[in-house]
Amino acid sequence: MFIGHFGLGMGLKKTAPVISLGTLFIAVQLLDLIWPTFLLLHIENVTIHPELSGNRILEFTNYPYTHSLLGAIGWSLLFGGIYYLVKKNRRNAIIMALAVFSHWALDFLVHFGDLPLLPTNHSTHVGLGLWGSPVVEIIIEVILFVTGIVLYLRSVHFKNVLGKIIFGVLIALFILVQLSSFWGPAPESENALAWSAQFQWLFVLLAYWVDRNTVKIA
């Protein structure tokens, strides 16, 4: 699950138009934005299988703090709480918390039973494993992504051509990264994977830039 998460972030603009698209992207992708740093710090781990292909290249052997059910709930409450302290908007704070948790919920649909319920060594692991049915998984992602784009475009007016160009670049990058995950080479190492995953922050920055060049539809 990749573009599906970001598609949900774009779609949430319709529900919470005052929240920047960049902030929405941080929320829906927070667990995966933290995860690469945890890899670099060797707090969490992943096993790479270059002999395999597609979604089976990465074996998520240890990510109890970012991707356990309890961990996801904790990050959701933390992010929503910080948003409330800064913005004093209870409704949008709840939306932010739910957006963070949506990441775990969508991952639950696709992961191969590797999501721990608790951040412990002997926790039960869950996941419906739709990665094993790639056509179904891709259809779900495309629906989320396209729906998100449509809802976002119905929520804002672009103030200038620059905003439209940046948004187009953002969508193109999403598609390129998604395609490369299907047909690109396996990462050379865990550290190489972690550094490449930090590229996601570019999407966040572009999203903030896009929103600066839009106005919400009344």
From TrEMBL:
The keyword Zinc does not apply. It comes from the Bacteria. The chain crosses the membrane at residues 21-43, 63-86, 93-111, 131-153, 165-186, 192-210. It holds the Pfam family YdjM. InterPro entries: YdjM-like (IPR007404). The keyword Methyltransferase does not apply. Keywords: Membrane, Transmembrane, Transmembrane helix. This is Metal-dependent hydrolase. It comes from Niastella soli.
